[in-house]
Design brief:
This protein is an alpha/beta fold and about 425 residues long. The protein has helices spanning about 10-20, 20-25, 30-35, 35-40, 90-105, 125-140, 160-175, 195-210, 230-240, 265-270, 275-280, 315-325, 340-345, 355, 360-375, 380-405, 410-430; strands spanning about 45-55, 60-70, 75-85, 110-115, 150, 220-225, 245, 245-250, 255, 290, 300-305, 325-330, 350. The strands form 3 sheets. The chain has a 5-stranded mixed sheet with strand order 1-2-4-3-5, with helices on both faces. Helix 1 packs parallel to helix 5 and helix 6 crosses helix 7. The structure holds NADPH dihydro-nicotinamide-adenine-dinucleotide phosphate (NDP).
Length: about 425
């Protein structure tokens, strides 16, 4: 960690893994002899590059691009691209590091990577976004490929951006290599169900956790943060299963809708108009928008943070506990601070880390890669069934691994240990590289 003194998010993600695996790491001399920990926290390759593009008034703008190829032990590097002004090397490294273990948990042959830029798509025209994506891919194209590194979406990178990125890659590579990127449109190599996968998978995972108590999400109320891809489809699946989500948020504030979030209206505002959650509140009779507020003060049974890292603090968890929240499942990556995780675990709130609970997105990206490689296009129901089987399997793996390590019911230890051991054992078999 001394090598990366100015990378707080990366340090946070590494500390969480090391602390939760202390017993395992001390007991495994084979991991110590092979310097697994030292190797696994050092990315195999880090690429940083200038992205110069022209805005609609012909002004030249400069952003920074990143691709961290963290670990290829289990397969090609795989992980999303994030376009957001808060992106730094530290943010991309924390995401890439977590991706290694998440991808291992899916049971598919994919390594870990992540990328992005400090470019902010908010307020940009479609043409500006296209020019930025084309400039970004000018450099990224040298480093990716269907069996090398396969990017996908994340914050600020949705269907529109994936389309522009793929179009530019095709032009540069002079071949239609569908498997080079996932999250593509269904008409040109994308998988049905990929858009829904992370949010749907999150609720499937929460349902499995509740099933351990003889309960389900049916009849439960949930607070959800964010209003993007993950939040929207978590709410949709929750409603399909008889639950009710009563909140959404964005970086300008929070909406409480006691009647339950209207998913069709949310999609219209976010996916079609590219608007804000305040516009949603204006169109719903009993919904209230509170500028600058978070959603965690709203009473609920379940909490699903689906916006960004470190959005839930220890105080928020105390408020949730007082309001009766029984389960927190992370749709976003690292949304709980270390203090929030500790408070949740001490309060006996069921807690699922994003590595396990939001793995449905990347798992379905791997299903997209399988379809591309075999020139197939599976029906929605087939993809959803496979997603459900994968989420059920990840849930069972987390519980079994936690029990083996004498930490019954500890999903954090279970997810970190199961993902870590799968990669570590393969690293030993592949020698010192
Ligand atoms: P989107 O860009 O679709 O939506 C992001 C949402 O979070 C928006 O509502 C956005 O509001 C809000 N948000 C982002 N940054 C901040 C911030 N700093 N403060 C407050 N609100 C913020 O992204 P996704 O839904 O795809 O991603 C959400 C989370 O889920 C991320 O942590 C991502 O890494 C994780 N994830 C996503 C997967 C996927 O398949 N898409 C897979 C696994 C994890 P605003 O518009 O105001 O910025």
């Amino acid at each position: 960690l001394k090598r990366n003194p100015t990378q707080p998010e990366f340090q946070q993600a590494v500390r969480e893994v090391i602390e939760s695996l202390e017993t395992l790491l001390l007991s495994r001399t084979d991991y110590q002899d092979a310097a697994i920990l030292e190797r696994i926290i050092e990315p195999e390759r880090q690429i940083m590059f200038r992205v110069a593009w022209q805005d609609d008034s012909n002004k030249v703008r400069v952003n920074r691009g990143y691709r961290i190829q963290f670990n290829s032990t289990l397969g090609p590097y795989k992980g999303g691209l994030r376009f957001h002004p808060s992106v730094t090397l530290s943010v991309i490294k924390f995401l890439g590091f977590e991706q290694i273990f998440k991808n291992a948990l899916t049971g598919q042959s994919i390594g870990g990577g992540k990328g992005g830029s400090d470019f902010d798509p908010h307020g940009k025209s479609d043409n500006e976004v296209m020019r930025f994506c084309q400039a970004f891919m000018m450099e990224l194209s040298r480093h990716v490929g269907a069996d090398v590194d396969v990017p996908a979406g994340d914050i600020g990178v949705g269907a529109r951006e994936i389309g522009y990125l793929f179009g530019q890659y095709k032009r540069l590579a002079n071949r239609n290599e569908a498997g080079v990127i996932t999250g593509k449109g269904v008409g040109w190599g994308g998988s049905r169900g990929r858009t829904e996968a992370t949010g749907y998978g999150l609720v499937m995972f929460a349902n499995s956790m509740l099933a351990e108590l003889g309960e389900s999400v049916e009849g439960k109320t949930a607070v959800v943060s964010g209003s993007g891809n993950v939040a929207t489809y978590a709410i949709e699946k929750l409603h399909q299963l008889g639950g009710k989500a009563v909140s959404i948020s964005d970086s300008s504030g929070a909406v409480y809708d006691p009647d339950g979030i209207d998913v069709a209206l949310l999609k219209e505002i976010k996916e079609v108009r590219r608007g804000r959650v305040s516009e949603y509140a204006e169109l719903r009779p009993n919904a209230k928008f509170q500028a600058g507020q978070k959603v965690w003060g709203i009473p609920a049974d379940l909490a699903l943070p689906c916006a960004t890292q470190n959005e839930v603090h220890a105080n928020d968890v105390r408020t949730m506990r007082a309001n009766g929240v029984q389960l927190i499942a992370e749709g976003a990556n690292m949304p709980l601070t270390p203090g929030a995780i500790e408070t949740a675990q001490h309060s006996k709130i069921l807690y699922a880390p994003g590595k396990a609970a939001n793995a449905g997105g990347v798992a379905t990206s791997a299903l997209e890669m399988q379809q591309n490689a075999s020139l197939q296009s599976w029906p929605f129901a087939v993809v959803e069934e496979k997603l459900e089987a994968i989420m059920t399997d990840i849930h069972a793996t987390c519980l079994a691994t936690a029990a083996d390590l004498d930490e019954p019911g500890n999903y954090l230890v279970g997810a970190n240990a199961a993902g870590f051991m799968k990669v570590a054992d393969a690293m030993i078999e592949q020698g010192i590289v």
